[in-house]
Every structure is written in structure tokens, then in C-alpha cells.
Design a protein that fits this description.
Elements lengths: L5 E5 L4 H12 L3 E6 L2 H13 L3 E6 L5 H15 L4 E4 L5 E2 L7 H28 L3 E6 L12 H21 L4 E7 L12 E2 L8 H4 L14 H14 L3 E3 L2 H10 L3 H13 L15 H30 L1
Parallel strand pairs: 1-2, 1-4, 2-3, 4-6, 5-8, 6-7, 7-9
Length: 316
């Protein structure tokens, strides 16, 4: 009888994490739910088991490294192996760089960067022993864009991506694939859980980052779509995985025009700077920041096209 595969997901109490364990359970995997919310993960695990799946809920604070070691040990004791680890737990942070609370910034990096690295360190010995495995670090498309007031979150994610790429090279010989997952805006409680680490400096963060109660970077992508992308990543084991082709294209393009994108953000923010003449600034920065990435993408396409055309003419 073929042994069932085992996946461990951190941050499994809601959003992407919950969608991932449900999807893998539906497809016959044993799932381990790790999160601080004991009642939530136990309820999800119970639903999975009632549907005929096999699930284990383990209360885990990923910033406590002993918890991560226990997570691996208890999973191994129950199932004998871990085929996939998804480092999904994390949170956002907003604030102007000059105003960031450094203690909160340190906590953010402990959660978004140090915890995934510690989880990787905890699971690698077991994966070496079983001669293979997959580790997926859930980063964000924002790592490609220096978004104003989101610098702390973006910095933690780009650091995680660099760690992921290095680990992928270092562990390839051991048949351990380390993958960078890059979801865009997803319909989760991300913004409700985002920390305000200091003020927006000269800007009213609540005013410019919200429009009718929604963050300007919020979107309608369902967590189920990200879970499906994680499934595809486990199957194909690419270096990095986007949720959609559109996000892949945008992510690729904006990496090539950071200066243009920064200038667009700067111009947009100037529209929202405090007025000295008594006029009121526009109510929301939402559309300006969303358009910035689109414009930057267009600039990249045009630049690439012109470069190709120039090369063609030069060759004649």
C-alpha cells in the first residue's frame, strides 16, 4: 500500500494556510495544521477528518523556535515523514521609513524571515533522512516593488526570497526543493492583521491607504487560487511560483523598471502631501498606486520592444 504524503502548513488557521490544508486533504494527503489559534485549527482538522481525511492540529508560535522543533518532531512521530513544509505564517506592516517603530520592525522580521528559516532548519534533517522533500516559502509580489509605506513588509519578503534562492541551491543535491511562492493581493484578513508601526510622517496613513474600508493593494483573488498554485509548485518544483500568468508578467516587468516605478510613486505621493494653501488633498491614494504598477509595466514593455527593434535595425 502506497504511503500517504504529508504536508505541514504554518498559519493554517485562516486564509491561504486554511485553503491549502483543505485542498491537500481533499487530494488524499495527510495534513498538519500549525498556528497559534488552537480552537480554529482544531475545528478545521475536525472538519477534514469528518470528510474522511487525516489531519493533525498543533498549536505553534513560529517565532518560538522550540515550537518549530516540536512541530517537526510530533509530525514525524505521527506520520513518519514530512513531504512538504509550507511556511505561510506572516503579517504585514505599514509606516513611513523615517517613522517606523524599530521594535515592531524587529518583530516583523522575526515572524516573516527568521521563523521560516528556523522552520527550514528544523525540517531539513528529516528530509535528508527520507531522501527528499519540498519547502515552500510564501513571500509576496510586493518584493518586486518598493511600495511607499509598505517598505518594512517588502523588505522582510525580499530577504526571505534571497534566503529561499540560496537554500534551493544548497539543498538541491539532497533532493530538497526550496520554492519561492509569490502571491499578489489575496482576499484574506491580511489588512486586518497588518501592524501600523509608526505614523505616515507627513501623510495620513489611514486616509491614503484606505478607500471605503479597503486597502489600496487589496484584491479579489481567492485563497483557493493560491492553494492551487502551491499544489502546482509541489508538482513542478519551480524556482518561484506565481498564482496567475498576469501576476507573473507584472512581477517580471516591474523588476526591470524600479527607477521609473519609484518616480511614479513619488509623483503620486506629492499629490497627497499636506497642502500649505489650505486646500484638502485627495481622499485616497488607491488608484494612483495601482496605476503606478500598470504604467511601469507598460514602460517595461515599450522599453523591451524598442530595444528589440533597435537591435534588429543594427543587425541590418
Amino acid at each position: 500500500m502506497k504511503q500517504q504524503k504529508v504536508i505541514v502548513v504554518t498559519g493554517a488557521s485562516s486564509g491561504i494556510g486554511e485553503a491549502t490544508v483543505r485542498l491537500f486533504a481533499q487530494r488524499g494527503w495527510c495534513v498538519v495544521l500549525a498556528a497559534r489559534s488552537t480552537e480554529k485549527i482544531k475545528a478545521i482538522a475536525q472538519e477534514i477528518e469528518q470528510a474522511g481525511g487525516e489531519a493533525l492540529a498543533l498549536t505553534t508560535d513560529v517565532t518560538v523556535y522550540e515550537d518549530l522543533k516540536a512541530l517537526v518532531q510530533l509530525t514525524a512521530e505521527r506520520f513518519g515523514r514530512i513531504d512538504v513544509l509550507v511556511n505561510n505564517a506572516g503579517r504585514g506592516m505599514v509606516g513611513a521609513v523615517a517613522e517606523l517603530d524599530l521594535a515592531q520592525l524587529e518583530q516583523l522580521f522575526r515572524l516573516n524571515l527568521f521563523a521560516p528559516v528556523a522552520a527550514l532548519q528544523a525540517v531539513v534533517p528529516l528530509m535528508r533522512q527520507q531522501e527528499g522533500g519540498v519547502i515552500i516559502n510564501v513571500s509576496s509580489m510586493i518584493e518586486n516593488i518598493a511600495v511607499p509605506f509598505m517598505s518594512a513588509y517588502a523588505a522582510s519578503k525580499i530577504a526571505l526570497s534571497y534566503m529561499t534562492d540560496a537554500a534551493r541551491a544548497e539543498l538541491d543535491h539532497a533532493n530538497i526543493a526550496v520554492i519561492n511562492m509569490l502571491p499578489g493581493s489575496t482576499d484574506t484578513a491580511f489588512y486586518e492583521n497588518t501592524a501600523y508601526a509608526g505614523s505616515g510622517g507627513d501623510f495620513d496613513l489611514q486616509k491614503i491607504l484606505n478607500r471605503n474600508g479597503e486597502g489600496p493593494y487589496s484584491g479579489s483573488a481567492a485563497p483557493d487560487k493560491v492553494a492551487e498554485a502551491i499544489w502546482q509548485a509541489v508538482e513542478a518544483q519551480p524556482r518561484q511560483q506565481y498564482v496567475s500568468t498576469q501576476e507573473r508578467v507584472v512581477g517580471t516587468l516591474v523588476r526591470h523598471v524600479p527607477a521609473a516605478l519609484n518616480n511614479i510613486f513619488r509623483i503620486a505621493l506629492n499629490r497627497y502631501a499636506p497642502r500649505t494653501n489650505g486646500d484638502e488633498a485627495p481622499a485616497s491614494l488607491s488608484h494612483d498606486l495601482q496605476r503606478a504598477a500598470i504604467v511601469a509595466g507598460g514602460v517595461a514593455v515599450a522599453t523591451t520592444f524598442l530595444g528589440v527593434q533597435t537591435a534588429r535595425h543594427s543587425s541590418h
